[in-house]
C-alpha cells in the first residue's frame, strides 16, 4: 500500500520536545535508560467522539464518529473538534438513506442516526471515501459512500453499498437486492412473523473498509443481531463489486449480505474493525460486546479480539473458538479475547474529566486501530467514566505483540512513551502492583467496576498476594509470562506514565491468557 494511508499505515516519527509552560502540551524530563524518553504528552485536550474511526493525512490524525462528531490531532494525545460539510448538509447528502430509514418510523429524523462512519483514502479514485451508517428503526438501515478531494470535505454522495430491513419484494425493489442476487424474490430467511428476522439478517451499520494484503478492497459491517458480514468492494468506484457473488450457506454466507465473519442469532458484537499486521501475517478482528452506557441497564461495553490468516476468516480467539455463533444459545462470553472491562487504578482517583471525578473507566469500546511505519501499534476507542454520567471521550493506548502474536493493550493511555526493546532490570520489575483481572463477563445489564487487587512479583519468580502463581521475564526483551490459577498469560512489561495529575513514571504489565482473559498491573512505587 503506497501513497496516502488507506487505513493508517504510517505515522510521523520524531515528536518535537518543547518545554512545558502554562497550557503547553509537552514536558521534557531527564530519565535514566529505563525511563520513558520520548517527548511525553503530559497535558492533553480531550474530544468527545463516539465510535471513533481513525485515519491519517499530512501529519494529522482524524477520528470520525457517530452523530457527526469528528476530531483532529497532531500527536494522538491532544485533540480538537473539526467539522465537515456533513455537519450542515447531512440531510441532503444522505437523502437516499434517510428515505429508506423512514420506512421504519413515521417521524424519522436522520440527524441522530448517522452512525460510525469509516474514512479511507482510495488511490485509484484519488478520493477520500467516507462510508456512513444511516440507521433506521425496524432495521431499515443502509451504508452510504460519500467522497471528497480533501479529508475535511466537502463530501458528496456517490451511492449506497448495502441495505437491511426489506421484508417483501416491493421494498427490496427500492434497493440493489436484484442487482446483487439476480432475483427480486426476498429470501425467506430475512422475514419472521412479517418483520425483519434479526436473528439471521444483519443491521446494515458500522462499516469498516479495509484493503487486504493483495490490495483488494473489502467492507465489514453489521451488528449483534444477525452478525458481522463482509462484502467485496470495487477498487475503482468504492462501491459494491457486483461481479463478486456469494452463495447462501448456513452460518457462513448469504447471497446478498456476503460472507459471515462473526456473531449471529442476536448474540456477539458490533462495531467491527479489521487490521492487517504484516509482522504476524494475521488479520485482527475487533468488535464490541454488550450495552454502551455506563449508568443504566444497557451497560458493560467492551472490546473483543479475534484473528485469521484470511481477511474473510475464519476468525478465532486465543482459545481457538470461532467468532461465528451457531445458535441463539451460543455463549458469547467465552468467544473472543476481552481486552479490558470497567477498571480503575489509584492514579485515576480524582482526576477531573468533565468537571467530575472519573474514578475509573467504564464501557470502553467501538474501537479502531492502526500500525504505523515503524510497526508501532495503537488502539483508539471511546470510553465512559465511573462518575455517574454518560459523558465520554476518545482514548488512545499503545499495543504490543506478545510472544504468541496477540496485541496486548498498554495499561495507561498514550503519552509518548517508548517501550524498552531490551527489557527492564529485575530490580525495576519486582515489587507490589495494583492488579486487575479483566475476566470474561459479558452481561448486557448494569456492570459495576472490576475489583482492583494487590499482588507482589517476588524476586524468586513467585507471585503472592490476592492471587498467587509464578512469573518470568524473557532475557533482553520486554516479554513476560505469568501463570495464575493454572492459566498461562503472555505479554509485556512497559514503563510508562500513569494518568495521575503528576503523570508518574511507573512499571506496568499487560498480558493475555490462553483462556481469553487479560490481566493488567501497575506498580506501586515506594
TrEMBL record:
The residues covered by the Extracellular endo-alpha-(1->5)-L-arabinanase C-terminal domain are 412-521
Tagged with keyword Transmembrane helix: no
Give GO MF terms, alphabetically.
hydrolase activity, hydrolyzing O-glycosyl compounds
Q: In which pathway does it act?
A: Glycan metabolism; L-arabinan degradation
Per the UniProt record, the site (Important for catalytic activity, responsible for pKa modulation of the active site Glu and correct orientation of both the proton donor and substrate) maps to: 206
Q: One of this protein's GO BP terms? A: carbohydrate metabolic process
One of this protein's Pfam families, by short name? Glyco_hydro_43
Family note? Belongs to the glycosyl hydrolase 43 family.
Where are the active-site residues found?
51, 270
Q: Which UniProt keywords apply?
A: Glycosidase, Hydrolase
| Protein name per UniProt | Glycoside hydrolase family 43
